[in-house]
Amino acid sequence: MKLKACLVLLFLWTLSLHAFSYRPLLIVPDSLIVPVGKVRAIHLSGIHTQNVSASIENENIGHLTSSKNTILVEGLAPGSTRIQFSMDNLIKYTKVYVREVTGKFPDRVSLKVTGTQISPALLRNLIIEDLNETIEHNPGATVNVTIPPKALPPSFAEGCALSLPVKVKISGDNFHPNPEKMIVNISNETLKLGAPGHLMVSNNPESFQEPSTLFKAACPDSSPTRIFYHHYNKGNVPYRFVLELTNSDSNGAKVHVLKGIAGPGIHEISVGASATERFFNAEKNHLGRVVEINKESSSRLLAIVVNPKETISGIVQLTPLTSSKFTVDTKIESISGAVDNAKMAEEIGSKPKGVFEGPDINLTGEYTVGEHYAFITLGKQSLLSDLETGKPNQGNYGAFYTIRIKINNPSDESKEVQLSFKPQAGPANGIFLIDESRLIKTPVVQAFAYYSIEKYRLAAHETKDIVIKTFAQGGSFYPVSLVVHPVEK
Known about the structure:
- The strands form eight sheets. Strands 9, 12, 14, 16, 17, 18, 20, 22, 23, 25 and 27 form an eleven-stranded mixed sheet that branches. Strands 1, 3, 6, 7 and 15 form a five-stranded mixed sheet that branches.
- The chain has helices at 2-21, 120-134, 268-284, and strands at 31-35, 39-43, 53-56, 62-67, 70-75, 79-87, 90-101, 103-104, 108-114, 117-118, 136-137, 142-146, 156-157, 161-171, 175-176, 180-188, 198-202, 207-208, 212-218, 225-233, 239-247, 253-265, 288-293, 297-306, 311-320, 326-334, 353-357, 360-368, 374-378, 400-408, 415-423, 431-434, 438-441, 451-458, 463-471, 480-486.
- By secondary structure, the chain is mainly beta.
């Protein structure tokens, strides 16, 4: 028994020697990322770590400090270098990448939103949108926001407020990703929003293929302003479309932003229709947020990457809450974040561009049962002209129409009539709000074809008034007509 026990102990001792003989003499990481101005540690491990010396090849990029089995690396300037570890005849290297910090995180962010009832998905989007604009980050870096799903309430009504913990990480090529936790304080305010007094249109040139400024103009006064844009990437590489609002006043400013945006997408007419539909929904429910802009500073209301052959379209309504001087510009940037040539893009063709007064258009029509057809045509005649150049807005793009139609049935029996949509210049799509209750979206309808929007049954000697609201949207061809006529058998 003693012999057997001795043999077992001998075996275990031999096994431990075998294992020890394969343990590395020195273990260091292959690479290390260090932010500029920050310190990161390399912990040495292995059989012998007491007599290890370390040196950095480029002392302008990083600085080393030794502490027992730990090497502290301080990032001095962006770049890459190597740390050499030496022990007797053994040499090992760690590649060091010193990168700029991508941005600065505030401890707390206050977000003011508006909306009769805000869904969790929309509230999430508003938070992400605000943090992308509020957090300072370097060009080319992106802000990634993580919100715990259960942290959002099922509904966020007017007068509500909450404090929400979020995780934010700013990342990008050649930048050090630095995740942080922060608190977002959100309040849903009740604001009275007036009708816009002016319309800004960015649609000429409609296509772009290099960095440039597409549109730039000052808001004529402090009344609400609607912005309409519609553009197409004709180039061979992606670009970033930016809508920027600048406060040129010597005081800080506040502005309410309500918008319907769509794209990028390859189906131009559908993109324009989606922007209109989303704007209708936002306006109906007063959905938006309050943006604060420091004196003589700018805020990016939109920054959208557009791939080749893709279209973007949008309607943005600004309601200043302070008497400040604002400038609006739309521009195209390279997605690398490099400084671009901000030259003004040359206008091409007759697409609209400029600042127009009175963007809300009221039309009336009347139809009597027994007559053949009644036409209400939109966009055939320009009703808007640029305040500076006098150029017309062909098609009245960006205009908001309110159409009141009176239908009379003088007969002694009930009659049914039909309201149809008829494009006249090319394929078009229509979004119609009927009597403030039903939002109807047509498919793409070809020129001179009819698409039935609604049917009405009128009793004998009845008169019916209907109210239709619609928007001259991007991507569709104008003029178009609303037609009241007998129901087709």
